[in-house]
Amino acid sequence: MSDNGNKIGVLVMSYGTPESMDDVEAYYTHIRRGHAPTPEQLAELTDRYEAIVGGVFPLRENTNSQVAGLQDKLETMAPGQYVCYQGLKHARPYIEDGVEAMAKDGIKQAVAIVLAPHYSTMSIGSYMKRAQAKADELGIELATVESYHLHPKLISAFTDRVKNGLKKLSVSSGGEAPVRVLFSAHSLPEKIRELGDPYEKQLMETSAAVAEAAEVKDWQFTWQSAGRTREPWLGPDILETMAALGEEGVKAILVAPVGFVSDHLEVLYDLDIEAKAEAAKLGMTLERIAMLNKDPLYMETLAESVVAALKV
């Protein structure tokens, strides 16, 4: 046992990504709840990783960096009080591994937070359920941060990126107009609406707050990266939205994927490759905002949300 027993544990959770190309099949199998992908499905995912990273996985590096950044920020705010642990949904260290590491270090009190600002029962809810079950088993008192989608510093960080993105778009498009800002996030099955899930509402609130702060009048929300299942997913997809905007005469698009906080497959492939290719076909210019990654304002958002969770 380490000397962390008197500290508060912080379980920082994220979706997870393979460590190398050799791990892609096992990772995909875990996402599919133990069902191995078909050779065609595996080849498609592998090709996407090869297209963006060539065997290096930015999400893992970025997640490690974000956890380290949060640790540094908490240490500045409250020296010696907090220690961060990582738990991933679909890769090692799994969520349960992170909780077990806390228990081995003698941690009795902890806070769980996810590197995603918006709550859904199908995303954040599932992370928290796994973390809570393991914490209960090991005798750890666990507080949770369910969302932080309107934290002022998060909105400020996104606002800065939208302003900078519009400047970049003006240059790359030659100042063509009209311009549309598309806020986006990962789609989920439509059934969440029947459950009264707050995911969609929170995303709209974040988008509206950023648009107002950035003084953007011409914007809308769209979905991306839907799963390929038989059930319907929230739409329209960004490629469908872009086609409609082309018919409207929109010449330039700035994508602001506010549902994501890091560079990874859904950003580097779905937007930077797939959506950009579609924009070229439509005769449009497309840029996207820079991701938060280890932005100081995002680190402060996380740290302040962790500290606040213990005061509830």
TrEMBL record:
Organism: Paenibacillus agaridevorans
Family statement drawn from the similarity comment of this UniProt entry: Belongs to the ferrochelatase family.
Keywords, sorted A to Z: Cytoplasm, Heme biosynthesis, Iron, Lyase, Metal-binding, Porphyrin biosynthesis
Binding, Fe-coproporphyrin III: Y15, R32, R48, Y49, Y127
CDD domains: Ferrochelatase_C, Ferrochelatase_N
InterPro entries per UniProt: Ferrochelatase, Ferrochelatase_AS, Ferrochelatase_C, Ferrochelatase_N
PROSITE patterns (UniProt xref): FERROCHELATASE
Binding locations of Fe(2+): H186, E266
Function summary: Involved in coproporphyrin-dependent heme b biosynthesis. Catalyzes the insertion of ferrous iron into coproporphyrin III to form Fe-coproporphyrin III.
A cellular-component GO term for this protein: cytoplasm
Pfam family, one: Ferrochelatase
UniProt name for this protein: Coproporphyrin III ferrochelatase
EC number: 4.99.1.9
Gene: cpfC
GO biological process: heme biosynthetic process
